[in-house]
Design a protein that fits this description.
- Strand 15 and strand 16 form a beta hairpin.
- The chain is elongated.
- The longest helix has 6 residues.
- With 253 residues, it is mainly beta.
- It has two domains: 144 residues; 103 residues, no CATH class.
Length: 253
């Protein structure tokens, strides 16, 4: 005689025990994903998107030059191709001469100076996780002309993605609905943000076999810039991954 386990992952509880008490946020928002094609499954590992990808640009009110700054976006990489998530807030691109500029961060620190612009054409500037295009106008820039580039904080939940350039590369919780919410359809995520969603954030030992990590991820993967695996990173948040066998669904044969 042998014992066969035929566990149903839809009915088995994710939480094995509280540690010492499970903390869950019940009114969270999952951000819209206009390109989503698959359901977001219950028990999916989640992260918080730090910033929006789009950057709002405003020209200085006293600019002399009539050139423009356009196509501003968060690319999340520095000039060496290393990941860097820009701080939310107002960044400023200032002309220090007609064809030279600098970038100042939201804390007022000049993070790069001496940016050379192409005369009479466009220049793509990429630095500190930002990218934008400067187009020279018929009236040349002068020192002191500036553009404010506002990076908006986000803070909404999205599936954990180790390759994220918007800050969703740090696992922060688990979508663990209790009751009838269940999986979230792709159509719902394409349509807009999903509100009033429960996220388990700490204080639980959970069944690692039920955890869903998108993008073919695993608990042994490394979390960027931390030196920790996903499992270790979650453990620091008092989310302890453990193996489990569902004895309630055992069958004899």
């Amino acid at each position: 005689m042998s014992v066969q386990n035929s566990a149903d992952v839809n009915t088995r509880p994710l939480i094995l025990s509280e540690y010492p008490i499970a903390l869950r946020k019940d009114n969270e928002t999952i951000i819209q994903d206009a390109s989503r094609t698959a359901v977001l499954k219950s028990r999916t590992l989640m992260a918080k998107q730090a910033v929006d990808s789009a950057i709002v640009v405003a020209a200085g009110g006293s600019n002399t030059g009539n050139g423009t700054v356009t196509l501003a976006t968060v690319v999340g990489l520095n000039t060496l191709g290393e990941k860097i998530i820009p701080k939310a807030g107002a960044w400023v691109f200032t002309l220090t001469a007609a064809l030279v500029g600098k970038i100042t961060d939201p804390d007022g620190v000049d993070v790069i100076t001496g940016i050379a612009l192409n005369d009479g054409t466009t220049t793509v500037v990429k630095y500190a996780g930002l990218q934008f295009t400067v187009t020279d106008g018929a009236t040349a820039f002068v020192a002191g002309d500036l553009f404010t580039l506002t990076v908006a904080a986000n803070g909404k939940w999205t599936p954990y993605d180790a390759s994220s350039i918007l800050g969703a590369d740090k696992p922060m919780g688990i979508y663990d609905p209790e009751g009838a919410i269940g999986d979230i359809t792709a159509a719902a995520l394409v349509a807009g943000d999903i509100e009033d969603i429960p996220i388990l954030i700490s204080g639980a030992r959970f069944d690692s076999s039920l955890l869903v990590i998108e993008n073919s991820g695993s608990l042994s993967d490394m979390v960027s810039d931390t030196g920790l695996t996903v499992e270790e990173y979650l453990r620091n948040k008092s989310l302890i991954a453990e193996g489990a066998i569902a004895g309630s669904s055992a069958e004899n044969s």
